[in-house]
């Protein structure tokens, strides 16, 4: 061990000896909100649009048609095993659905190369935070493993209205931290290089969010 590292560790031990039990952090921020569903939906849509996502309204009666329109007539798309089949349009000669098993150790899981060849992915979501415009995926059966929502260039994400909350503490309370969590507030983008916005660097460059309400 180098002398510099030994000195740093010695200082840390000395500091901890003087203060063995750190004080409890103050958590006097809001943990719940009273915003109405209408207000939460409007705020989430506003935030997502601001982050360059496309937002659509649908009900259980119209969602299959909405997804068909977003996919287009010609598309090869992937879905997780737990996604509701009634949400999806019928396959055609030029539009086909592929189901990813979610387990790379068993048959039925698409390779990264196969996922890269897909035109789109359709998933549901766990919870969405209106205040930040953030959608959370928690690797549930209707969301799939992280790879399927990150590799295809187009992500169609269904947000059931009952999963929309206003603030971050409410969203985190609905997340199972024992499973991988993916959070996004728009299509993948970065402005790190010469302050020029580039989309699709770390995930899909196109994001369509469907706010799903009850049957009409």
Helix content: 25-40%
Radius of gyration: 21 Å
Average pLDDT figure? 91
H/E element order: HHEHEEHEEEHEEHEEEE
Neighbour order of strands in the largest sheet: 1-12-7-4-2-3
Task: Give the biggest beta sheet.
Answer: 6 strands, parallel
Approximate shape: globular
Structural class: alpha/beta
Alpha-carbon distance between the two ends: 68 Å
Topology, pairings included?
Layout: H1 3-18, H2 37-50, E1 54-59, H3 63-71, E2 75-80, E3 95-100, H4 112-116, E4 120-123, E5 127-129, E6 134-137, H5 146-150, E7 154-160, E8 164-165, H6 168-173, E9 182-184, E10 189-190, E11 198-199, E12 206-213
Parallel strand pairs: 1-12, 2-3, 2-4, 4-7, 5-8, 7-12
Antiparallel strand pairs: 5-6, 6-9, 10-11
Description:
- With 216 residues, the protein is of the alpha/beta class.
- The chain contains six helices and twelve strands.
- The strands form three sheets. Strands 1-12-7-4-2-3 form a six-stranded parallel β-sheet, with helices on both faces.
- The mean pLDDT is 91.
Features:
four-stranded mixed beta sheet; alpha/beta; 25% helix; globular; six-stranded parallel beta sheet
Briefly characterize the structure.
This protein has helices at 3-18, 37-50, 63-71, 112-116, 146-150, 168-173, and strands spanning 54-59, 75-80, 95-100, 120-123, 127-129, 134-137, 154-160, 164-165, 182-184, 189-190, 198-199, 206-213. It is an alpha/beta fold and 216 residues long. It has a six-stranded parallel sheet, sandwiched between helices.
């Amino acid at each position: 061990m180098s002398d510099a590292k030994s000195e740093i560790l010695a200082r840390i031990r000395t500091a901890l000896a003087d203060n063995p039990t750190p004080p409890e952090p103050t958590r006097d921020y809001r943990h719940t909100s009273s915003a109405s569903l209408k207000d939460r939906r409007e705020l989430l849509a506003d935030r997502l649009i601001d982050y360059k996502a496309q937002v659509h309204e649908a009900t259980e009666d119209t969602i299959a048609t909405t997804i068909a329109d977003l996919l287009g007539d010609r598309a090869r798309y992937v879905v997780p095993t737990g996604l509701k089949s009634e949400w999806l349009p019928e396959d055609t000669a030029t539009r086909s659905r592929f189901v990813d098993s979610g387990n790379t150790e068993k048959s039925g899981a698409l390779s990264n190369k196969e996922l890269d060849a897909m035109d789109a992915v359709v998933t549901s979501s766990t919870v969405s935070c209106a205040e930040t415009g953030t959608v959370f995926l928690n690797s549930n059966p209707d969301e799939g493993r992280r790879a399927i929502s990150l590799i295809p260039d187009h992500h169609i994400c269904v947000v059931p209205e009952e999963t929309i909350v206003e603030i971050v503490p409410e969203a985190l309370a609905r997340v199972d931290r024992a499973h991988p969590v993916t959070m996004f507030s728009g299509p993948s983008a970065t402005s790190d290089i010469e302050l020029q916005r580039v989309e699709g660097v770390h995930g899909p460059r196109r994001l369509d969010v469907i706010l799903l309400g009850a049957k009409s």
